Amino acid sequence: MATEIKVPVLPESVSDATIATWHKKVGDSVARDENIVDLETDKVVLEVPSTVEGVIRELKFAEGDTVTSQQVLAVIEEGAAPAKADGGSAKADGGKAEPAAGAQQVQPKAAAAKSEARAPSSTRPAPASGTGDLPPGARFTAQTQGIDPSQVEGTGRRGAVTKEDLVNYASGKTAGVSGGARPEERVPMTRIRKRIAERLMQSKDSIAMLTSFNEVNLGKVMALRKELGEQFQKDHGIKLGFMSFFAKAAANALAKYPVVNASVDGDDIIYHGYADISIAVSTDRGLVTPVLRNVERMGFADVEQSIADYATKARDGKLSLDDLQGGTFTITNGGTFGSLMSTPIVNPPQSAILGMHTIKERPIVENGQVIAAPMMYIALSYDHRIIDGKDAVLFLVDIKNQLENPHRMLLGL
């Protein structure tokens, strides 16, 4: 019995999806609940599993094609034997089985298209056989870089080709010498990357964005983590990180300055009586912002566990659309990559985003004494249409005071 595998019902905010990767081809056997194809939307990658056990008889689309809700992606012959596509019988001469009549072999075409799209514009020349007269270092470079020494102008004694000549040739730095390895690659943007680009331009064009800065002494937070971190991990099974301190401090500050938690809808301002905080997570496919719901009600362990779960799902491509939808405020941590200071971009329809940065020991004055302290610059980018500079600055100062006095934050003071 033939079973059709269809595109899942997509949310209203997602009109279509793109075939990202076929994990099966015509004639392959497939188990029930085994992933057949990845669909890429503007926000996440969806896996489409098989609903039955059988053999792939037909693939309706190639990689890169656009599909909509409930379109048929593939046809599976339930209970059929693998690699016997023509009525269950193989060729008598022992050759490869032919696909079933009417089956569309779109996978090879897709693979060829992808290979053509990713092919570099120039290829490395094959090494020539005349490398025996080269010095050992130059010979090794010629062999590993795939360079024909006869095409390289030597600058050594009596015009000999040196290792440096070969390295320069490979990097295209040799003046007056054409050729050299100068590869280029053209690949289409992924759906997620295109969506990120659209959102960034939307933010730039529609928001009167301004950024305010402050700095935080994280000495007491670090001392608290050192003192209680081991017990925290033992009791909750998760490490006590910095993000939970910032998320809780942000939730508390948002309650005091609700306009920072608001959003613009036409000529109206929508005030949210809850803190749904988006946490920016970097993945191979681009930046995603899964949402922590009701952070004002969460404990530190809940925040840390939720962030760890989202990070795992993001790395594995398992984030759902529900994980990414909503959010009234965003926190991004460029400090994990070494950023000292930046101006994060607001994620519309939100009105503000908090940027964390790397922690550096810097000299500060405390009680009349110059000491070294672990300092972090923090930045708040905000929509100046509804958030005045006063509110933005006071919001940042509130977060600073909480993080510099974490015991008061833990007591809800």
What does it look like?
The structure is a single chain. The chain has 413 residues and is of the alpha+beta class. It folds into 3 domains: 2-118, OB fold (Dihydrolipoamide Acetyltransferase, E2P) (Beta Barrel), CATH 2.40.50.100; 120-184, no CATH class; 191-410, Chloramphenicol acetyltransferase-like domain (Chloramphenicol Acetyltransferase, 2-Layer Sandwich). 29% of the residues lie in helices and 23% in strands. It is built from 10 helices and 19 strands. It has helices at 106-118, 136-145, 163-171, 191-206, 219-236, 243-256, 300-315, 321-324, 389-404, 406-410, and strands at 2-6, 17-22, 29-30, 35-40, 45-49, 54-59, 66-67, 72-78, 209-217, 263-265, 268-270, 277-279, 281-283, 286-288, 291-292, 329-333, 352-356, 360-366, 369-383. The strands form 5 sheets. Strands 9, 12, 15, 16, 17, 18 and 19 form a 7-stranded mixed beta sheet that branches. A 4-stranded antiparallel beta sheet has the order 1-8-6-3, with no helix packed on it. Strands 5-4-2-7 form a 4-stranded antiparallel beta sheet, with no helix packed on it. Helix 2 runs parallel beside helix 3 (163-171), helix 6 crosses helix 7 (300-315) and helix 6 (243-256) packs across helix 9.
CATH superfamily of the largest domain: Chloramphenicol acetyltransferase-like domain
Fraction of residues in H or I helices: 25-40%
Distance between the termini: 66 Å
Examine the coordinates and then state which fold CATH places here, giving the name of the CATH topology of the largest domain: Chloramphenicol Acetyltransferase
Query: In this structure, how is the largest beta sheet organized?
Result: 7 strands, mixed
H/I helix tally = 10
Query: What structural category characterises the helix and strand content?
Result: alpha+beta
**Number of spatially distinct domains:** 3
Mean pLDDT rating: 82
Give me the strand/helix succession: EEEEEEEEHHHHEHHEEEEEEHHEEEEHH
Number of strands: 19
| Strand residue percentage | 15-25%
- Gross morphology is globular
Uncertain runs are 84-129
In the CATH scheme, the class of the largest domain would be Alpha Beta
Query: Radius of gyration, Cα only, in angstroms?
Result: 29 Å
